[in-house]
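Milestone M4 deliverable, item 7.
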Amino acid sequence: MRTKPKIRVLVADDSALMRRTLRRLIEADPDLEVLDTARDGEDAVVKARTLRPDVVSMDINMPKLDGISALQLIVHEAICPVVMLSSLTQRGAVATFESMELGAFDFVAKPSGTVSSDLGTVGRELCSKLKAAVASHSFTRLGRRRARGMEALARERAADRRGPRDEADSPPASADLMAIAIGISTGGPATIGEVLPLLPRDLNAAVFLVQHMPGTFTASFAQRLDDTCQLRVEEAAAGTEVRPGHCYVGRGDYHLTVHRSTLGRRLIRTSTKPDTLFKPSVDVMMESVLAAFGGERTIGVLMTGIGDDGADMMVKIKQAGGYTIAESEETAVVFGMPREAIARGGAHAVLPSWDIAKAILRRF
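Output delivered:
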């Protein structure tokens, strides 16, 4: 006998076909039900106010009132969390990250444009994120995120006063270069902003970041991080020599790995192999970083996300003499990946997101 009430979802999309498809996909999950549907952003706001759903699935491109504007109203009134649906395009990526900065819980990319007949391929991801949004109590975190965002902006302006970054800010890698390997997933685009902007540009380390997201989104993601960080942040490209003060973001649909040449140079490699659930994979990235830098020069960090990607490699980094940090349940939007690392004995420290950068810097 079922005792737990179903999560009530409001679906907003201007396409009747998409509304029917989303209803079918969502209601296939026994924990979810579609409370109602909305044909545009204005309709979504009205129904959110009156029906008080647990979560909203919000399309970005809609008439009358677009999804981002509707999101702002729902977030401002603290009605419920919102998961955005966006197109797999560069323009869609920009709009998606804007919505994340405005308070969306997370996003799901439609596989083939605004009207996707193959939406079923992301149905499981959508249902997982709708449930995670409700479980996260994201509105209790929103005020803190905004405050942290203002602090990051202040740091960015202070960095600007020190002059523009150029290659002189990051000399060639030395033998004692450190590696910081960070894995993050659901809830990551907002949470990582509480770590990377706190790392200084003169850090004698290279940062390797895997965030689970589509390939058309990672370049925009890296650019937005670069705009707010003192480190130089870039999408990882094959053949790039690893340099201190740089953060390399794994390109979606490709693994991010590091190769050490016979001359001792560390170079970025990208590959579609091995086949893994997530691509890029945190485990694959961490394994290669550990091999290229050695345990004593590797710091592993595992943050918010569904599943266990990275948990096994956190154990191996710790066993090899590296230092490992797992994000605590206090701040993790989804306490999945870090919880698994902790349970397997792979974390030296368990910290809230805002303390992770300070813990990293204490290793230098």
